[in-house]
Specification:
Elements lengths: L26 E5 L2 E5 L3 E5 L3 H22 L16 E6 L22 E4 L11 H15 L8 H12 L7 H15 L4
Parallel strand pairs: 3-4, 4-5
Antiparallel strand pairs: 1-2, 2-3
């Protein structure tokens, strides 16, 4: 009897059946750090209030959906039913943290997790002001989870994240050029 060899790859477009037990339970609960809100793709922990955890989880899921529509022309990996379930941890803290003890500020070349960290030590009521920054970090986390960060140059990742976040291009000349090129490539007549 010949055995069939099955090769599996993270990049394969296998459509694994969705196991309901792997889905996070949507809902809010208290934890040792504050309030934890679980959604399909995010585990949000917020030290300031339950309302902020709920608001942030909603904003991140909405952002993730918009990113998916933007990414549709160049990948389908994010359309698999099991893509990114509970893949991104988000910590929003209003407690002062020593600079050496702070976690990384989001996915970077040397950071292998797509986690997001936001400090609200300047005041917990300022979370909506961090929304553009959160949208950039959510885009970079999406690229990390989809493993597109391995194939897209950094300037494209920076430009796409800034394009998704909206607003004016950054003052840094290199980042500004990346944002303007990506905007042109997405919105130009030949796009």
């Amino acid at each position: 009897i010949a055995e069939e060899v099955v090769y599996r790859s993270l990049r394969a477009e296998n459509h694994n059946q969705l196991d309901e037990r792997r889905l996070p339970e949507e809902g809010l609960r208290t934890c040792h750090q504050g309030w934890e809100m679980r959604t399909r793709h995010f585990v949000v922990v917020c030290t300031s209030s339950a309302e902020q955890a709920r608001w942030l989880a909603h904003q991140l899921e909405r952002s993730w959906s918009e990113i998916g529509r933007l990414a549709d022309p160049w990948t389908v990996v994010h359309r698999q039913p099991t893509f990114g379930i509970g893949a991104v941890n988000v910590l929003v803290t209003d407690r002062p943290v020593h600079p050496r003890a702070q976690p990384g500020t989001g996915p970077r070349n040397s950071n292998f997790e797509p986690d997001i960290y936001i400090s609200l030590s300047d005041g917990p009521s300022r979370l909506p002001e961090h929304l553009p920054q959160l949208r950039k970090k959510a885009f970079r986390a999406f690229l990390r989870v989809a493993q597109l960060d391995q194939v897209l140059p950094d300037w494209v990742q920076v430009g796409l994240a800034a394009y998704h976040a909206g607003g004016e291009p950054p003052p840094d000349e290199q980042a500004r050029s990346a944002v303007l090129w990506v905007r042109y490539l997405l919105e130009g007549d030949d796009a």
